[in-house]
Design brief:
278 residues, Fructose-1,6-Bisphosphatase, Chain A, domain 1, 7 helices, 31% helix, binds 1,6-di-O-phosphono-beta-D-fructofuranose, binds magnesium ion
């Protein structure tokens, strides 16, 4: 098994463990993460669990997480960046959440062009996993300790159906609000407050997800290394596009591990239109 196969295996065997540990960890952890957000007990626990599992893999040289300040050096090899629980504020209301992983062949922080694999686990009514590697995307169901492919060579449906945009509407820039008005006339709203849950709807039905730059925070909310790049890599591998408003997320040269970025993802035509509106 090569290192990427081992990472995929470890993430998928960790998924039922993480899912099983969520119920007792719905409280706040009295700590902030490096982005200044209050952590949930589940964030801290999933981070520690995945850190132990992933740094133990031969061929993983660096590990970094949305939930910890610096990069851990764990030998020679690939660099792994994770968002252990994406959408963890949803744990209180029992809505969907996910785990995101990006594997880079360069030291962190790295460009999305250095990604060699990206994947996410979605904790919905069932546990699914989406893996992008070598230009193709596979969706799996994780059940009874087994990971079974349910869709190979997944591509975004040509006719988009859904959209979901984050941030408070009065905080949007006018150009984004104009774009949103157009999209609202064409597609159905699906916004659940977890990028992975919302993006999985776009991967399934076609459409557009965005957490745009805001007037109060032009850099947006989501983090390039842990969220923007991996999901950008997945959507681009499925024939869609990612953008910070001007260019592919994967073309951004990172300055900092926890840097934020405006995120727009989805069908090519919808992201082209967004870029010409912004
Ligand atoms: O609560 P808001 O502002 O809609 O933000 C939701 C966004 O923030 C996130 O929850 C941020 O990710 P984390 O939960 O990993 O911090 C995204 O999953 C989601 O798209
Ligand atoms: Mg997240
Ligand atoms: Mg998170």
């Amino acid at each position: 098994m090569d290192t990427l196969d081992t990472i995929i295996e470890v993430v998928s065997t960790s998924a039922p463990v993480i899912r099983g540990g969520l119920a007792g960890r719905r409280r706040k952890a009295d700590e902030e993460n490096p982005s200044g957000e209050t952590q949930m007990a589940a964030d801290v626990w999933a981070d520690e669990y995945l850190e132990a599992e992933l740094t133990a893999i031969d061929g993983v040289g660096e590990f970094a997480s949305e939930e910890r300040e610096g990069v851990i050096d764990c030998g020679d090899g690939l660099s792994v960046a994770i968002d252990p629980l994406d959408g963890s504020s949803n744990i209180k209301s029992n809505n969907s959440m996910g785990t995101i992983i990006g594997v880079y062949d360069a030291p962190l922080p790295a460009s999305g062009r250095n990604l060699v694999m990206a994947a996410y686990v979605l904790f919905g009514p069932i546990t699914t996993m989406m893996v992008a590697r070598e230009g193709t995307v596979t969706e799996y169901v994780i059940e009874d300790g087994d990971r079974r492919p349910v869709k190979e060579d997944l591509t975004l449906p040509a006719e988009p159906v859904v959209y979901g945009f984050g941030g408070r509407v009065p905080d949007w820039f006018d150009e984004f609000a104009d774009y949103a008005r157009e999209i609202e006339n064409e597609l159905k709203l699906r916004y659940g407050g977890s990028m992975i849950g919302d993006m999985n709807q776009v991967m399934t039905y076609g459409g557009v997800f965005a957490y745009p730059g805001l007037q109060s925070r032009p850099e947006g909310k989501l983090r390039l290394q842990f969220e923007g790049n991996p999901i950008g890599y997945i959507v681009e591998s499925a024939g869609g596009r990612s953008s910070d408003g001007e260019q592919s997320l994967l073309d951004i040269e990172p300055d900092e591990l926890h840097q934020r970025v405006p995120v727009h993802l989805g069908n090519e035509e919808l992201i082209d239109r967004l870029e010409s509106t912004l």
